[in-house]
Amino acid sequence: MQDPTPLTALTRHRNPDEDPDPRLLHPLPPPAPGLYLRHRNQGFAAHISASAPAFRLLRGLTAKVLADYGADAEAAETAQLVVSELVGNSVRACGDHVPLVVEVYVAAFGIAVNVHDPDPCVLPRLRGIALHDPEAESGRGLGLLDLLAPGWHVCRSPIGKQIRCRVPMGCSA
Question: Nearest 10 degrees: CA dihedral of 62, 68, 73, 79?
Fold first, then answer.
């Protein structure tokens, strides 16, 4: 029998006040410095201090958890790209070791990828020149995001902003 909770590969810690179902995971000890994971329905929420080790673990976790919850391989790979782009944009905008919250989960519409950073003033914007300049070293990410997660949007919050994306999932799941 397959374990119903994909995150059980990580250390288990259950909070009985939050969920009566003992099969579900809750606060997990960080498997890397600067990374705190929480189970959420059909996925996870990661609180990270943006660093190379936390980022590598986050990309791998995205692929594994989505596959374990039935996402097709193509959609999971697309979600990894979206996570990479959004986390990279947050680091460029806010600096190294910025505290981020990254949520990734399977939903009825496909895969949700949400990245929350602490700066409500630095909003993503397309830079038209980079889209048409083959020599440009950056500036294509939001155009790529438009293709991979059409309809993404920004929500401001009292503690920053959140970029919300929906990655469509194919019929192969």
Answer: -30
How confident is the model over 42-70, as pLDDT tens digits? 999 999 998 888 888 888 899 899 999 99
* Homologous superfamily of the 32-168 domain (CATH): Histidine kinase-like ATPase, C-terminal domain (3.30.565.10)
Q: Model pTM? A: 0.75
Q: How far apart are CA 33 and CA 162, in angstroms?
A: 23
- Residue 167's nearest CA partner among 122, 124, 106, 99 is 106
Please tell me which residue, 59 or 5, carries the higher pLDDT value.
Answer: 59
Are 35 and 46 contacting, i.e. CB atoms less than 8 angstroms apart? Answer: yes
What the block records as the tokens of 150 is 């059409």
**Which whole-number Å values give the CA distances from 93 to 40, 70, 87, 152, 155, in the listed order?**
27, 33, 10, 18, 16
Q: Cβ(25)–Cβ(39) under 8 Å?
A: yes
